[in-house]
Amino acid sequence: MELGLKNRTALITGGSSGIGYAIAELFVEEGANVIIASRDYSRVEAAVKTLKRKNPTVKITGKVLDLSNEKNIRKVITEIQKLGSIDILINNVGGPASGATLDITLEGWDKGYYSLLRSVILLAQLTLPGMKKKKWGRILTITSTSAVELIPKLPVSATFRAGLKAYTKGLAKEVGRMGVLVNNLLPGPTATARLEELKKKSPAFFESMAEETALGRIADPKEIARVAVFLCSGANSYVTGTDVLADGGFTKALR
Ligand SMILES: NC(=O)c1ccc[n+]([C@@H]2O[C@H](COP(=O)([O-])OP(=O)(O)OC[C@H]3O[C@@H](n4cnc5c(N)ncnc54)[C@H](OP(=O)(O)O)[C@@H]3O)[C@@H](O)[C@H]2O)c1
Question: Quick check: helix, strand or coil at residue 219?
Answer without folding.
Answer: strand
